[in-house]
TrEMBL record:
This is Diaminobutyrate--2-oxoglutarate transaminase. One of its GO terms (molecular function) is diaminobutyrate-2-oxoglutarate transaminase activity. Pathway: Amine and polyamine biosynthesis; ectoine biosynthesis; L-ectoine from L-aspartate 4-semialdehyde: step 1/3. Belongs to the class-III pyridoxal-phosphate-dependent aminotransferase family.
């Protein structure tokens, strides 16, 4: 780009960012950490108004299973536009909706598709969570919900009540098993077993203070919680515990679904069939769409018991059908499993190369790298001592959100877009599209390694500059 044209583009870029800062609310989040102005995009690549190109490993927070502007998605949208079909039809039946439901049911876990009902909700995942909570309360006549520490299910009142940062007496919080910062100090199968026993005891102890709940909601892989995959055996225990007590199990597949974790739905890794599945993000093929799918015997709603104006987004259904079919027909979930394993193997080398990398974890193309203080004392994160005869599987150092933010900034300078998450916003997250090539994956890892090395080098040169870990509310501000 010629210098004059570059200067003009830079002026447009800065002007738009300046007006955004002046006019949009203080609740904006991604725009603070990623001061870019996307104008064109294809696949993994975004081009900004200033002419810079970026590899996008945010993917609309996991929305873009096929990346930006995939040809099959664009073709599906154009077909609807060119047909003259209505674009928004409330909950009326249409050929576009019929095709979407047919394709969606084709992908469901065994035992659910042949007895499923689907409810189209408002356009966002949090709307679907609200619908799922309302459904199980209506079906059981009970009110309480079991949820898990570190969870994230959305931003509306009910979704916040079952997310990790909320306080709500109707949502009982349970320990979510993890290895690196195990709440019981042991990690591994033993930690998962203790978490399951805790849940079982809470349900069966008449003095636990938790009455039989209307449902249990969980993420098969916690995303915003720091990319923490649930152990398969623990998920099977949760399925058995809930089934034995007639508690509907709600699987939040909003971010994990449509091949992201290496199975079409993340519950497939453990082989469980939930009673309710919450879906959004990738099912709309980049456009707003959210549904719940549930067992027919839970369908106790009266007409109008749950509604919403934007349930009939025909463009999103067409884009979603094309996306679901493309992922299924081209084995993209299986490819995500293989490529994700290779990427995790390479990223695991970071823990030996950089003292500021505490753990690398993930499943499929849902990957997290936790940053810690290399010169900090090991901590227990206020965990109880390990049981007698058991040694902790790890002694993690304090989370380092400021180092994670620095890595995110260094990545952006190198043309790589990543997200942050985790309990202390100290986890660098990768959510590339399932269509990422081997060469692109190598470029992503190279840029990330270079960014981490730069941050580690600066930390060594200037010493620790520690800040207090931030919670979700502080990060969003």
């Amino acid at each position: 780009m010629a210098s004059g044209a570059h200067g003009e583009a830079r002026g447009v870029h800065e002007g738009i960012l300046r007006r955004q800062s002046a006019r949009e609310s203080s609740a904006r989040t991604y725009a603070r950490a990623l001061p870019i102005v996307p104008v064109r995009a294809r696949g993994l690549t975004i081009e900004g108004a200033d002419g810079r190109r970026y590899l996008d490993c945010l993917s609309g927070a996991g929305t873009l299973a096929l990346g930006h502007n995939h040809p099959v998605v664009l073709e599906a949208i154009r077909k609807v536009l060119d047909s003259g079909a209505p674009l928004s039809v409330l909950d009326l039946a249409t050929p576009v909706k019929d095709a979407f439901i047919t394709e969606l049911f084709r992908t469901l876990p065994p035992g659910l598709a042949d007895r499923a009902r689907v409810q189209f909700c408002g356009p966002a995942g949090t709307d679907a969570v609200e619908a799922a909570l309302k459904l199980v309360r209506a079906a059981t006549g009970r009110t309480g919900i079991l949820a898990f520490t570190g969870a994230y299910h959305g931003m509306t009142a009910g979704a916040l009540a079952v997310s990790g940062g909320a306080r709500d007496l109707q949502a009982a919080r349970l320990p979510y098993p993890q290895d690196y910062r195990c709440p019981f100090g042991v990690g591994g199968p033993r930690g998962a077993e203790l978490a399951a026993r805790w849940t079982e005891s809470l349900l069966d102890d008449p003095r636990s203070g938790v009455p039989l709940p209307a449902g249990m909601i969980l993420e098969p892989v916690q995303g915003e919680g720091g990319v923490i995959p649930a152990p398969d055996e623990w998920l099977r225990r949760m399925r058995q515990l809930t089934a034995d007590r007639s508690i509907p199990l709600i699987a939040d597949e909003i971010q994990t679904g449509v091949g992201r974790t290496g199975a079409f739905w993340a519950v497939g890794h453990s082989g469980i069939t939930p009673d309710v599945m919450v879906m959004s993000k990738a099912i709309g093929g980049s456009l707003p769409l959210a549904v719940i799918v549930y067992r027919d015997d839970l369908d106790v709603w009266q007409p109008g018991a749950h509604a919403g104006t934007f349930r009939g987004n025909q463009l999103a259904m067409a884009a979603g059908t094309a996306t679901l079919a493309h992922v299924r027909e081209n084995g993209l979930a299986e490819r995500a499993a293989g490529l994700g394993t290779r990427m995790l193997t390479q990223l695991d080398e970071f823990t030996g190369q950089f003292a500021c990398v505490g753990e690398v974890r993930g499943r499929g193309l849902m990957i997290g790298v936790e940053l810690v203080h290399p010169d900090g004392d090991t901590v227990s994160d206020d965990r109880p001592s390990a049981p007698t005869g058991q040694e902790p599987t790890s002694t993690p150092r304090p989370a380092a959100p400021e180092l994670a933010e620095a890595v995110q900034r260094e990545c952006l300078q190198r043309g790589l877009i990543v997200e942050l998450g985790g309990r202390h916003a100290a986890v660098v997250r990768l959510l590339p599209p399932l269509t990422i090539s081997d060469e692109q994956a190598a470029a992503v890892l190279d840029r990330l390694a270079d960014a981490v090395a730069a941050v580690a080098r600066r930390h060594e040169e200037h010493g620790p500059q520690r800040t207090r870990p931030q919670g979700p509310a502080q990060r969003a501000g």
